[in-house]
Amino acid sequence: MKFGKTPLFCTSCRKELPEEGPVLLLEDNHARYFCTEACAEKFYTPIVKRYKDFQLRLQSKEQDSLLDEMLGDPSVIDALLYSPNEVWMVSNLADECVYHFISELGEKDGKKISGVCASLVKKFKPSFVITLLVTKKIDFVNEYRCGVKLDAANFQGSSSKSSVEQYDGQLDYLSEEIVITLEKIKSELLAIHLENRNEFDVPYEHFTKYDHYLQLTLDAPDEIRAFNDLDTPLWCYIKSGRNLDDEQAFFYLVICLNQGVEQQTGKSIVIPVFSFPTIDSKIYNFFRTGKKLFGPSQN
Ligand SMILES: [Zn+2]
Questions:
Q1: CA of 16 to the centre of ligand 1 (A)
Q2: 271 CA distance to ligand 1 centroid (A)?
Q3: If you measure from the C-alpha of residue 8 to the centroid of ligand 1, how many angstroms do you get, rounded to a whole number?
Q4: pLDDT at 109
Q5: How many domains does one find in the chain?
Q6: Are residues 50 and 159 in the same domain?
Q7: Among the three residues 176, 206, 225, which one is the final residue of a domain in this structure?
Q8: 3-state secondary structure of 119
């Protein structure tokens, strides 16, 4: 008996991938394979979170509504993803690269509107969108002009559909539908969070200190609640914790899109969309008003 081929496992959930059949491969220079879109989303959540936290500190509610409005327009999405005016590449020690696409999106009330798309890239096309933003503030766009400036012409001119050449069992990008759904939900949750947040709550610049709680909360939540305030039903994972430096008790909340149940394990497949720490019982209670899906029977 021979062992045969070395098996290939999903980078995120470590499940063995089928030898034939679709797998997701989203980066040019890193061989990271995923079994599902949910697994890819989960794996890249820390980088998405970092970008969102940065955005939270700079963004106003007005800009969120601008994004909401414009995301409904397919030509805007097309411009953001497939006809950038500028492309910047930032990388880290591990040679992981994020690309910042900057696009001009016309004018509104006499002010120029720009769009920024931070994304992973495969074959010069966005393969995994980390964040999208639409703004009238030039200072805000300038924050994303960093790293190495690339020739934008290489990234222009064709939509996602035409980048599917010969199908070799690999999908090179997340479906546009899921990108738009996730972006809409993210910006809606961001607006809800800004609206309900108290001044005394954990400052945005401290959010990264709680990053490790994201995985802990998903793996071992205290409770899971349905969150039905948006058009799309979501699940809210909640875990309590205590800060090591000042003994302050806090809650960590992760709001997820539920993608059904994995047949083999019976576990739920969820995509984390938005997460934050809080010391404020008001916002904590706001997110846990829905039906309890998991957790102790008494409060
Ligand atoms: Zn997986």
A1: 8
A2: 12
A3: 11
A4: 82
A5: 2
A6: yes
A7: 176
A8: strand
234 in Cβ contact with 182 (< 8 Å): no
| Binned average pLDDT, 10 residues per bin, the chain of 299 residues | 79 88 84 90 90 78 68 83 95 91 90 92 91 87 95 80 57 82 85 89 87 90 94 94 88 92 79 93 93 81
Query: Is the same domain home to 56 and 129?
Result: yes
User: 9 C-alpha to center of ligand 1: Å?
Assistant: 8
pLDDT of residue 263: 76
In this prediction, residue 155 carries a pLDDT of 92
pLDDT at 254: 95
Please identify, among 144, 176, 208, the residue that sits at the C-terminal boundary of a domain: 176
In the chain, beta strands by DSSP E? 23-25, 33-34, 86-91, 97-108, 111-122, 125-135, 148-150, 170-171, 223-227, 234-242, 249-261, 268-278, 292-294
Q: Kindly give the distance from the C-alpha atom of residue 68 to the centroid of ligand 1, in angstroms, as a whole number.
A: 30
Same domain, 130 and 35: yes
Distance from the alpha carbon of residue 266 to the mean position of ligand 1, in angstroms: 14
User: Residue 129 C-alpha to ligand 1 middle, in angstroms?
Assistant: 18
Is the whole-model pTM more than 0.85?
no
- Ligand 1 centroid distance, CA of 211 (Å): 21
Residue 184 lies in a domain: no
Q: Determine contact, residues 241/291, Cβ cutoff 8 Å.
A: no
